[in-house]
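W.,

You were right to be curious about this one. When I first looked at the sequence I had no strong expectations either way, so I just let the prediction run and decided to look at it fresh. Below is the sequence, 759 residues in total, followed by the output.
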Amino acid sequence: MDEARHDKARLDALRYHEEPKPGKLEIRATKPLANGRDLSLAYSPGVAEACLEIKADPATAARYTSRGNLVAVVSNGTAVLGLGNIGPLAAKPVMEGKAVLFKKFANIDCFDIELNEMDPVKLADIVCAMEPSFGAINLEDIKAPDCFIVEKLCRERMNIPVFHDDQHGTAIVVGAAATNALHVSGKRFEDIKVVSTGGGAAGIACLNMLLKLGVRRENVWLCDLAGLVYRGREAEMTPQKAEYAQGDMPRTLAEVIVGADLFLGLSGPGVVTPAMVASMAPRPIVFALANPTPEILPDLVRSVAPDAIIATGRSDYPNQVNNVLCFPFIFRGALDVGATQINDAMQIACIEGIAALARATTSAEAAAAYSGEKMTFGADYLIPKPFDPRLMGVVAKAVARAAMETGVATRPIEDLAAYKHRLDSSVFRSAMLMRPVFEAAATVTRRIVFAEGEDERVLRAANAMLEETTDKPILIGRPEVIAMRAERAGLPIRPERDFEIVNPESDSRYRDYWETYHGLMARRGVSPDIARAVMRTNTTAIGAVMVHRGEADSLICGTFGQYLWHLNYVQQVLARDGLHPIGALSLMILEDGPLFIADTHVHPEPTPEQIMDCAKGAARHVKRFGLAPKIALCSHSQFGNLDNSSGRRMREALDLLDAQEVDFAYEGEMHVDAALDQGLRDRIFPGGRFDGQANVLIFGNSDAASGVRNILKMKAGGLEVGPILMGMGNRAHVVTPSITTRGLLNMSALAGTPVAHYG
């Protein structure tokens, strides 16, 4: 069975690299090249202008070329993963993978360069000659001691960052994990005894970093295959190992590990025995990082030291020491300030940022990516997960600040807070568009009640609200379930202490609530018994009653169930005083900008009057995002060429809008492609009412609107904000079951904005 699984995994990996096109990288243009004018700007003669600017001032290369965001991953294939010296060609899949990680995690463009040069001095010459092409160099998988020589020569001769990730990336992540391991164990760097195996590039770099963090040189014991590195030893020695020589006599690992606080393994499988671990200091820290099989398996460590703090290099155990936590983000910060090097201060800033993030509340995105894992700071969670989207903002900002403070930044950033916000916005795609909404919401404090308070997404959204906004969450649910799920999710929030709870099973306001609901619904067939049952079982109705009674300002519901079911209870209680649902508006954030879609849920076949109301409501909401509405009334009919139902209703809605003299741009009826392409629109119907692309598409039925919304979400990578329930005075919003924690936070900001802010 194991062999069958191995064969399947092998075939899956090969298929991944082969299909649908070979390799993991491609090159895409960042500018249009669609006509002769584009060609003249991209190449001759227009390109000469950029060339002359750079000749006059080399620093402008970061403005006119991709160099400021371009890294070279360079290897000669002499020490590839655990595969050894497999040569530069066989190393290419690894280097392509590294380039993909740069792009995925930090949006850094990257070329993998595999060089057939084994002489370290000549290899350094080649790398140095590439300086005009790149903003930074990532040396990768070069054997020791050659890697030390190559990096030293390149750093001395190049005026851009040169970073050997096998050394320094590993050292940074080990430094972050060690920082937090000592935090958990109550120990200090300056007091601990460290025993390490492996005198290669990564091992030496890790020891160097531990010294920078405070470990005393005399407390470090380095062993390799020949035993202890001691003064006078000749076998298997390098100058780098000699720096850690300890004593004058040969000793075994079993002898030197006695009383050690931290074991650091970067060697091979089975090097450490349970007996060795048992001889270590109380609450030992065991970092067994050999891959794929560590120096000792965690289960064996636990068998003799149940309270040990353990890290490995594997993803199937807690605390995976993975360089991807470091290299994309340290390069991001270095490139953004035009750093000439990555110095010690920048590396330590990276360590501090990673370590601090692990001690903070786990992000919802990381929790979703690692479903089922408990990610609460402690012995089994020392460092954050690679898919934690906060890494970029936290780490890159810390690195950029350190670069500026140490004088190696050629393009200092004036506003680091704005820089971090920009980085976060590149990860949380809704952040930039939502900024004016959050700013408006911050002017007041509003009480937002969540109908599905036991849902983990709601708990994480409530926690984020308390951390990032002035609004107050109210959760409907059983207190013991909410407390248990918050603890399991690693959230610090607890019922009643941090937020109000409404317990449907037992609440002092129960009688008030069912009597209120009965009073509203008595002439609609709801008896007292039904009212009591609804207020025990229907959390959406409970939340709506709270808003009606003034105990909450807005309701958010719909994380499970069907949209119209929730909307029914919202209407029963809150559709009074002239309020009524006029449509659901979804903001789709796409690669080329935002696009609003309506009505996605409320009216299956809207009347002309409902289409008009939907357009007016959409215009108000679009303005909340700081955008000028350009509304297209969409139909299979185009400017009167079909006499079908949607065409007739859209044309009537257009007449109604004309009669109202509204203050926003609109046009119709038209196809979606005409709405989004002015050139096409002008050929069909020149002299239209607005220029450029429409940013709001209103459809003649909810099937079309919802279908477009889902296609954009699933096939175009659209990120949805919404649906926003229009017409209810911001007193309620019904979301959909696919909503994320970030989506709920966005909806809470929308719900937390007073109506006066958007008319």
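Here's what jumped out at me. The chain has a mean pLDDT of 91. And, maybe more interesting for your project: DSSP finds 31 helices and 21 strands in the chain.

Coffee later to discuss?

I.
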